Amino acid sequence: MDTLLLARLQFAATASVHFLFVAVTLGLVTVLVGLQTAWVVTGNPRFERLTRFWGQLYVINYVLGIATGIVMEFQFGLNWSGLSRYVGNVFGAPLAIETLVAFFLESTFLGMWIFGWHRLRRGVHLALLYGVALTAYASAYWIMVANSWLQNPVGYEVRDGIAHLTDFSALLTNPALGMALGHVVSASLLTGGLLMAGISSWHLLRRTPDHALFRTSLRIGVVTAALAISLVQGFGFAQFGPVGAVQPTKFGGNSPDSEALVAEWTTRFGPGDYLPPTLASVGLGFMILIGFGLGLLWLLVPLLWRDWIIRLRFPLWLLMLTVPLPFVASILGWISREVGRQPWVAYGLLPVEQAVSPISPGLMATSLLGFTLLLGGLAVANWVLLARHAARGAADPALGRPPARPDADDAQPEPAFV
């Protein structure tokens, strides 16, 4: 196996695993904002317990997701030095903004939210969660700005063999950005909604004492997932127009624009296969199939009336079985988007063989094995912890637990010695 193939496999593994954490993070934090807002406005303790329960799962996923993100960032310098050297001045700008502005602020807000229970006023504590959500969305935005530039390089010029940023606004108005960002965000909402509905279904099937709590979260999860799948489908199909315009080769090479572009690349870069592998179309097809299947979630919404969704019980089993589907669809979507621009790292600008680091296949294989084991361990640890804490129910989650009050004897002042 050659270095390039190993590097591509490593990036595919790390990017796919990391995005699974991102989807849960974006989806759950949105629902958490709604739950805690309802608690602050109504004062209903049910919403406080739900916020603590789902917030605890969110924190677990967030902490382990950070580690996967750091692992993925290392690759740009280790495995793709040609990318960093040639387009780092442009591609690195949104990544730096994401790290310095969005990620650091998000972590700060989240830490204050975690340790602010029973120490801050409710309104201030809620504002911190809004800060977490807004910075999480800002982080996703800047990551998509960077990725969209690789899909459609704009606002740059090449001087002395290096790409330099000349128009920052062009990055923000990239045709490859808008609909893709909406598609990613709505897919995350779908993931969070189905995760909430699936875990709630499991507790309701077990007839746990917290029936009323999980009945509420089941209804929130089903409605969120149903609304999100419509957005997923809308933003997904809306991408075909702008993506086809800026990447004529992505969906095949039979159009005049695609053939003209391939002829131009052949002149500039020499003969080669400039059409994406079949894997891109396969991933796209199965993702669309899953999207249409999950559209049936709307059939469950009427069953929320008079709790028929719980009385019939089989819809609860269906919701549990559908939990993995948005994760699978998310990976397939990234395969379609990333593999669909091959053989380019930056579409029409930098071929992948010129972007990979000049290291030996043995060293790259060692890196692939080590990173894969690390990411696999983090993913397994995440799901084990999520399953363990989800199974404990919402009786008394550790997050937001009131501080223990001292006993009466302990509260007495100690006698003074004279």
TrEMBL record:
Its main location: membrane. It is a multi-pass membrane protein. It is found in: Cell membrane. Keywords: Cell membrane, Electron transport, Heme, Iron, Membrane, Metal-binding, Transmembrane, Transmembrane helix, Transport. GO terms for biological process: aerobic electron transport chain. The keyword RNA-binding does not apply. GO terms for cellular component: cytochrome complex; plasma membrane. It holds the Pfam family Cyt_bd_oxida_I. The keyword Heme applies. GO terms for molecular function: electron transfer activity; heme binding; metal ion binding; oxidoreductase activity, acting on diphenols and related substances as donors, oxygen as acceptor. Belongs to the cytochrome ubiquinol oxidase subunit 1 family. PANTHER family: CYTOCHROME BD UBIQUINOL OXIDASE SUBUNIT 1, CYTOCHROME D UBIQUINOL OXIDASE. This is Cytochrome ubiquinol oxidase subunit I. It comes from Micromonospora endophytica.
